[in-house]
Inverse folding.
């Protein structure tokens, strides 16, 4: 039984990947005259819908000295808009059996509701109402400022690992807005006012800076007609061009080290910058394949070498943020075992990268990685909000719908040579392109 | 296609109506006498299968082998039959099969997700893991190290520390007080023989299985015999005694140099089989489980800005039931926070909830159910959780009817019976100001 299936699968693997030509989500795309983009992903498994509005503005767009204002504004969006008093937005959604929330990143701010599809128009009207009509009472602004300060304490300052991420980002993105935390620096958050939020809101929240994504039990045409009626009348805003100051090349073999009494398990981190999909699509696809081969799961190169064979660390993981608007991050993490120094682990990680630079990846590794990534695209359809998230995230970062729909086909075009080339161009340890991070217990010895 | 009847909820109180079920759940019986619940859905080529052995959880771990069930769940997918760890994981990965084992205090289980095209391979690999797990020395050592490293990392997480202390004190004298993730010293003593002995608990009389997605009743029936036919009918399992919540009315403090204090409280709860369990769910929704709109969030976050999050939850274990509240606030506000929680407890047990609150809780608890049925594995997980709690196959419909008929007085009577703020076990982690009558915890229990 086992062997029969195995043979069958080998046959499949050599067959041309016809499915790679199919679209992943079969989404539909529209635009309104005021510049708002609309994507609809029909999915009639259940009579529900996810409605998301993505604004192409995030923490990286904040003026100097106002760190945290994008995220503060996201909170204030629930504190009163046309027809809805403070807190009423979420309560109304809840009372109709729906869920809602929002999130802020460096690049974007997104608001979403999941609810029975018959309530789509109401939800749309509510979201449209706060695109231009935000007016929270001032006492709500004051109490919400306390909430975001508590949020910062809870998420960052209570936790050494989260605290350590801040100097790492600041070093990786010297002079660039990505070096400032999304939630903001506490001393600047304390001074954020409604005027600051309103200025930011007026400047960036408008239909021509927004993407609507609707997934669920709807048709593209119906959503488009509804959106024309609800979002269509909102006038365009005068949108400033998005220009961010940039980082200089990394300054050499920089190290960031933090010792903290709360740390009992050391952490080693290698961080560098690499092109995002918007900056360089084909290189980004190659980096995604490299990410899979190096870091995806227990049979990946890093885990196999560092954890299973050399027994230097208990975990090794990696991520590449190809969806960034500006430079992406390529980050590697490992947790040294007792008896191993952080530098031994760092050297072993670098050696694995060096192997890719010197010898490339094998055709088998390449084929298996592509096949897994294409399978992942099929799994991605098995969800209501997942496709809306993937599409919104990619479009807001400058990709177009075809980049997502034909991602399996595009992944298929990546060659072993391209993978080796991006490793050599962006991850070469000899070119001092990594910032090494050490998060260590506050004793003399780093381990034990 | 999943059929979900959302409309006309008010008319379903009479059983005379031929009612369309919320979810079309079929009970599948195999020739070998095994049963599973299935929701068939061929819209995406994905199959999810989940199972659990009831009563086979970490509560059975001997005191000097804490973490045994957890380590079994970590190693059962690390090699089986002729396939050693890396070979087994590679088979899973190359076929994009996701297979995980999991343990809780009361149960041991597994989740399998596969694309239809790899289903034969997926079922074969799961069969192999269940019938011939290898428990080789290398992966056991690796998983042991990984768990110890996880414990060391958790020591930087004040929320984990608070939960550890709460379990230790609220469940004192019971195996539930142990560390289900193991201790640094107990993990070191666990051998392959211990793991094999643990799997001898697995038996048909404790098994529940659910499946969803692209699989028919007949296919599932034969898969059941393949996967579980080999199991013994019954097994010898030690009894776990019932327990009353311990240390009620006591406050425990663990000092930590962080800007906030983490607050965890628990008082006695209600059994899932209690006729008033649904009433407790509705009350808990209004009180604090629902986030935005709940009384705790309104009073403490929205009005006063004292926290980023506050939630209450019903805590159902086989041998004990609790009702807990979790939050965090700056060290200066801890006594105010504890007073406010107590006030909300008093209020809901002395005054009826408002009609509007009850109505919106009902609509949410009924109307939001379809949102949890939007992916294959979510559906399988829901079916499994119903079976784990011995609920009937039409439970979702019964639940809806019961919630629909609930009155303000039902909630008040239940709150009077259930809530008692003098029975809180309270755990504080941080440097709270102005708190008296606390017992200071110097050493974390069951960590080293």
């Amino acid at each position: 039984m086992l062997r029969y299936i195995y043979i069958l699968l080998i046959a499949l693997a050599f067959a041309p990947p016809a499915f790679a030509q199919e679209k992943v989500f079969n989404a539909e795309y529209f635009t309104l005259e005021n510049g708002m983009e609309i994507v609809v992903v029909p999915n009639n498994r259940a009579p529900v819908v996810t409605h998301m509005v993505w604004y192409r503005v995030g923490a990286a767009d904040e003026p100097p000295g106002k760190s945290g204002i994008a995220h503060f504004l996201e909170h204030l969006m629930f504190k009163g808009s046309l027809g809805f008093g403070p807190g009423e937005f979420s309560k109304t959604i809840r009372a109709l059996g729906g869920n809602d929330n929002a999130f802020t990143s460096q690049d974007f701010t997104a608001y979403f509701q999941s609810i029975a599809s018959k309530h789509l128009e109401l939800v749309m009207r509510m979201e449209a109402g706060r695109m231009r009509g935000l007016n929270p009472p001032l006492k709500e602004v004051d109490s919400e400022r306390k909430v975001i300060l508590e949020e910062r304490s809870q998420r960052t300052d209570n936790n050494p690992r989260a605290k350590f991420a801040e100097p790492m980002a600041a070093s990786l993105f010297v002079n660039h807005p990505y070096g400032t935390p999304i939630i903001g620096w506490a001393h600047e958050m304390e001074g954020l006012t409604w005027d600051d939020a309103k200025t930011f809101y007026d400047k960036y929240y408008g239909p021509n800076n927004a993407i609507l994504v609707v997934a669920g039990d709807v048709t593209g045409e119906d959503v488009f007609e509804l959106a024309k009626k609800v979002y269509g009348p909102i006038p365009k805003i005068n949108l400033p061009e998005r220009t961010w100051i940039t980082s200089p090349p990394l300054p050499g073999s920089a190290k960031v080290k933090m010792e903290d009494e709360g740390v009992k398990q050391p952490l080693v981190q290698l961080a560098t910058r690499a092109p995002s999909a918007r900056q360089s699509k084909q290189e980004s696809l190659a980096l995604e394949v490299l990410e899979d081969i190096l870091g995806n799961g227990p049979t990946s190169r890093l885990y196999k070498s560092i954890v299973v064979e050399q027994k230097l660390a208990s975990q090794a993981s990696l991520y590449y943020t190809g969806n960034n608007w500006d430079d992406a991050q390529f980050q590697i993490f490992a947790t040294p075992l007792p008896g191993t120094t952080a530098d031994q682990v760092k050297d072993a990680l670098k050696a694995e990268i060096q192997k890719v630079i010197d010898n490339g990846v094998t055709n088998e590794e390449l084929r298996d990685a592509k096949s897994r990534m294409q399978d992942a695209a099929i799994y991605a359809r098995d969800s209501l909000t997942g496709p809306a998230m993937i599409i919104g995230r990619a479009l807001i970062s400058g990709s177009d719908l075809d980049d997502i729909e034909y991602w399996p086909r595009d992944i298929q075009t990546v060659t072993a040579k391209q993978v080796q080339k991006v490793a050599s161009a962006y991850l070469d340890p000899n070119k001092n392109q990594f910032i090494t991070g050490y998060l260590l217990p506050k004793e003399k010895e780093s381990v034990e | 296609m999943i059929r979900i009847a959302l409309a006309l909820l008010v008319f379903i109180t009479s059983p005379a109506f031929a009612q369309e079920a919320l979810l079309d759940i079929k009970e599948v019986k195999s020739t070998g006498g095994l049963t599973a619940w299935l929701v068939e859905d061929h819209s995406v080529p994905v199959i999810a299968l989940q199972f659990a052995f009831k009563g086979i959880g970490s509560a059975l771990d001997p005191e000097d082998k804490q973490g045994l069930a957890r380590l079994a769940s970590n190693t059962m997918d690390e090699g089986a039959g002729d396939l050693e760890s890396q070979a087994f994981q590679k088979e899973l990965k190359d076929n994009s099969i996701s297979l995980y084992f999991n343990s809780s205090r009361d149960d041991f289980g597994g989740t399998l997700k596969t694309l239809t095209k790899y289903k034969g391979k997926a079922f074969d690999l799961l069969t192999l893991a269940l019938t011939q797990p290898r428990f080789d020395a290398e992966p056991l050592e690796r998983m042991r190290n990984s768990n110890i490293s996880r414990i060391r990392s958790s020591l930087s997480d004040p929320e984990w520390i608070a939960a550890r202390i709460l379990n230790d004190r609220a469940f004192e004298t019971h195996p539930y007080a142990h560390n289900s993730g193991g201790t640094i010293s107990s993990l070191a003593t666990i051998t392959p023989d211990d793991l094999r002995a643990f799997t001898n608990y697995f038996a048909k009389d404790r098994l529940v299985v659910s499946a969803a997605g692209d699989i028919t009743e007949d296919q599932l029936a034969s898969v059941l015999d393949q996967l579980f036919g080999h199991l013994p009918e019954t097994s010898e399992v030690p009894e776990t005694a019932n327990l009353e919540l311990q240390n009620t009315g006591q406050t425990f403090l663990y000092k930590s140099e962080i800007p906030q204090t983490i607050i965890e409280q628990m008082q006695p709860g209600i059994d899932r089989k209690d006729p008033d369990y649904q009433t407790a769910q509705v009350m808990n929704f209004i009180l604090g489980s629902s986030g935005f709109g709940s009384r705790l969030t309104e009073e403490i976050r929205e009005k006063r800005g004292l926290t980023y999050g506050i939630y209450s939850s019903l805590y159902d274990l086989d041998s004990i039931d609790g009702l807990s509240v979790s939050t965090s606030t700056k060290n200066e506000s801890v006594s105010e926070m504890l007073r406010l929680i107590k006030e909300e407890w008093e209020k809901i047990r002395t005054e009826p909830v408002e009609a509007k609150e009850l109505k919106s809780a009902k609509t949410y608890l009924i109307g939001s159910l379809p949102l949890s049925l939007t992916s294959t594995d979510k559906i399988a997980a829901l079916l499994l959780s119903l079976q784990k709690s011995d609920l009937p196959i039409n439970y979702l419909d019964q639940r809806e009817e019961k919630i629909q008929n609930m009155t303000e007085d039902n909630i008040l009577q239940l709150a009077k019976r259930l809530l008692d703020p003098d029975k809180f076990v309270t755990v504080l982690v941080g440097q709270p100001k102005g708190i008296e009558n606390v017992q200071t915890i110097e050493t974390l229990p069951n960590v080293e």
Remarks:
- DSSP finds 17 helices and eleven strands in chain A.
- Residues 357 and 425 of chain A are 9 Å apart (CA to CA).
- Chain A touches chain B through 74 residues (CB under 8 Å).
